Amino acid sequence: MPLPTPKKEEKRDEFISRCIENDVMNDEFPNLTQRVAVCVSQWDNKDKKKKQKKESYNEIDYDHTYNFTKEQMNELHKNGVLYVTQKDEDGNEMVIKFTY
Questions:
Q1: What is the rounded CA–CA span in Å between residue 100 and residue 73?
Q2: What is the pTM (predicted TM-score) of this model?
Q3: Segments making up each domain of the chain, as ranges
C-alpha cells in the first residue's frame, strides 16, 4: 500500500501527526519510533519525489529474472547502472533500468 505523502499546503507537524496515525502506517510499522522515522523521511523527501516523477516514465516493478551477458554485467559493475532495451508482448519498446 502507498505511504502517506504531504499535502500541498500541509505543515510539517500536521503531516507527521496525520502520517503516524494512518492505518497503512500502523499495519506496516507497528513500532511508533519506526513510524515517526518513516513519516519524517516522507516529509524530507517530498520535493525529491516530485522531481523524480517529472523525470521518470512508466516505472513498474516486475518480479522477473533477467539473464545478463558478460558485457552487461561488466557495465553494471563498472557504472552501477545498466539500461537494457527490449520489447514487451505488445511490441512496445521498453527501457529497463538495473541498478547495483
A1: 10
A2: 0.49
A3: 12-55, 57-100
Backbone phi, psi, residue 16, to 5°: -60, -45
DSSP code string of 33-99: HHHHHHHHHHHHTHHHHHHHHHH--------------HHHHHHHHHHSEEEEEEE-TTS-EEEEEEE
Cell of 51: 522531481
The amino acid sitting at 76 is L
* Structure confidence by residue, pLDDT tens digits, 14-67: 999 999 999 989 998 989 989 899 999 889 888 875 555 445 555 556 556 667
In angstroms, the CA 79 to CA 38 distance is 30
Contacts of residue 7, defined as CB under 8 A and 6 or more positions apart, other chains included, come to 15
Task: Evaluate whether 76 touches 98 at the Cβ level (below 8 Å).
Answer: yes
